[in-house]
Amino acid sequence: MTLKFIKPKKHFVMRVLLFIFIVSTFSFGCSSSKKYVQKGNYNTAVEVAVKKLRKKRNSEEDILALEQAYPKANQKDRDRILFLQQEGNPDRWEEIMQRYENLKRRQNLVNEVLPLQLNGRTINYKTINYDKKIIAAKKEAANFYLAHAKKMMETNNIENNRIAYYELLKAKKYNPALQNIAALIQKAKANGTSYVLVTFKNSARYNLSKEFKEDLLSFGTERFDDEWLEYTITPSARKKNNYDYTIFINIKRIEISPEQVKESSFEESKRIQDGWEYELDGRGNVKKDSLGNDIKRKKYKTIQCEVIETLQFKSALIAGTVEYVDAATQRKIKELPVSAENFFEHAVYSANGDLKALKRETRRKIGGRPAPFPTDEDLIYGTNQTLRQAIIDILRRNSRSIK
């Protein structure tokens, strides 16, 4: 017995997903704050209670839920802050800052519906200023990320410099006044970037012109750059030989066909009217119509014309590889074939016979003169655009081969 997996239709899947989304959204909107308290999800219980109390300030169920959930949600954050402080890990400050921000955000939310009245009593909470705690934790977090980023940068490891870059961005976010932070970010970015040199290499026996090389690589490398990759074609004086990767456009084979002239011919014919002739009876006498007149009919003949086609042909093939090389180890990471062709074709047609026998499209071709054959250089140069696009496609498809 063979079991087959039947792929569901796209529109059916979309309807199911939409239904799930609507149900989940509706369920959240209809969930009571009391249920969230029972589940121990105190922060959500506070949010749902406040949302409902904005519309109905005397909702007993939501007032009770808020009264239970609010202190417990706050205590949860305070307990975590205390634990982090006692644990003493140097990376604790970002989470401590976030916990204080939770407390502030929750307090601001609850203050929107305070004070509340329930069974003759007033429910209100003292407002606490968390700003100093948040600012202090931000500065400590900034100092931690700055110190840690500097240690990472000291390793001169490219991946560590990338980590340092993101940590320095956090440090700047938490404390923009840090000394030399902009310069450090720039340095980490530069040291974390892989620099790629795209260069030309001719391994073929044919000597290619300088113009060919320049035109072949006349595409903007910016299209291949990403956050941590920077391509260039012209070596930078700043980088000198310190590229992380080299991509060689290595031309290995150039083939040019001899100049060829081939002659072939074909014939076209047509049946045309060629005057009149009398109709004869079985005895050889001219037939008469009812009025006694001689009966005539159209006379036809077939005409021919020979068409001679002289075809000139010459072609060029240029082939090689796109080679990804680790500049430090000279290890070849990847090698991909690339090629392009260019053809010269020219046809001359001449006629021998009655031109009236030719079709209209054939008659249009008659005439013309042989064309001069292109030089080898011109034919090779004509491959440039196709070859360049093939190289661009390879670079775009294989951008993940380097990092």
Overview of the molecule:
- The chain is an alpha/beta fold.
- The chain has 3 domains: 31-128; 139-192; 193-272 and 307-403, Double Stranded RNA Binding Domain.
- It is 43% helix and 26% strand.
- Strand 3, helix 9 and strand 4 form a beta-alpha-beta unit.
- Helix 6 (131-154) packs antiparallel against helix 7.
- It is elongated, with a radius of gyration of 43 Å.
- 19% of the residues are buried.
Principal-axis shape equals elongated
Distance between the termini: 48 Å
Classify the secondary structure makeup into a structural class. Answer: alpha/beta
The percent of residues in helical segments reads 40-55%
User: What is the CATH topology assignment of the largest domain?
Assistant: Double Stranded RNA Binding Domain
* Topology as a string of helices (H) and strands (E): HHHHHEEHHHEHEEEEEHHH
| Radius of gyration, taken over Cα atoms and rounded to an integer in Å | 43 Å
Range of strand content: 25-35%
Q: How many strands in all?
A: 8
Name of the level-1 CATH class of the largest domain: Alpha Beta
**Overall number of domains:** 3
Gist of the model:
43% of the residues lie in helices and 26% in strands. It has 403 residues and is of the alpha/beta class. It folds into 3 domains: 31-128; 139-192; 193-272 and 307-403, Double Stranded RNA Binding Domain, CATH 3.30.160.
Structure keywords:
single chain, 403 residues, alpha/beta, Double Stranded RNA Binding Domain, 3 domains, 6-stranded mixed sheet, two-stranded antiparallel ribbon, 12 helices
In terms of topology, how is this protein built?
Blueprint: H1 10-30, H2 33-38, H3 42-55, H4 60-87, H5 93-111, E1 116-118, E2 121-123, H6 131-154, H7 158-174, H8 181-192, E3 194-202, H9 210-216, E4 229-232, E5 245-256, E6 260-278, E7 296-326, E8 331-353, H10 360-365, H11 376-381, H12 384-397
Parallel strand pairs: 3-4, 3-5
Antiparallel strand pairs: 1-2, 5-7, 6-7, 7-8
Helix pairs in contact: 3-4, 4-5, 5-6, 6-7, 7-8
